[in-house]
Predict the 3D structure of the following.
Amino acid sequence: MSIFFLSIFKKFLSSGIVPIIFLFFISIAIFSPYLFFDKIPSGEEDIGVYYPAMFFYQNAISEGQSFLWNSFYYGGFPTFLNFFGGFFYPLHYFLFKFLPLFLAYHIAQTFAVFLGMTFSYLFGRANGFSKIGSLILSLSYTISQTLGGLDTGLSYSNGFMVLPLLLFVITKIKQASSFKSG
C-alpha cells in the first residue's frame, strides 16, 4: 500500500505542476503582508490615486452605476482612459464585485505576478531549460523587479506578466511546424 502511494508521489513530483505550485507559493509569500496581515503599501500613489480609483470602481459596480466617468477625480475624469485600474479586465470586475476592496486589490496583484512568474518559467521550458533552470529564470525575473514596482499599482503588476507571455508565445509560434522551413 505504501509503495502505491510512494509511486503516486514520485509521479506527482516528476510532473510539470510542482514548479508551478512552488511559484504560486512564492507569489503568495511576496504579497503575504497585504493578503494576510492587513498591511497596505504606504506609497503616496497607492493612497492618493490607486486605492481611491478602485474604491470608486468597486462602488460603481456594486451599485450598478457607470464607472466610465468619475466626477470625484479632478472635478470629473473619464476613468476608462486611466490605465491604472484595469476597469475592463474581467478578473478585476469579479474580484471587486465580490471581495472587500483591499483584498480584491491585492489578490489581483498577486495573480498578475504569479502569471508573470509562470510565463517566465514556461518560456524557459520552451527554450529547453531544465526545470531548475527555468525556476531560476523565473525567480531572477521576479527579483529583478523592485517590490515597490510590483505592489505599486495594478497596471504595474499586470504589466509584469506581459513580457514573459509575449516571449513564450513567440517561442511557441517559432517552434510550430508551419513556421519551420522544410
Remarks:
- The chain has a mean pLDDT of 79.
- The longest strand covers residues 69-70.
- The two ends are 51 Å apart (CA to CA).
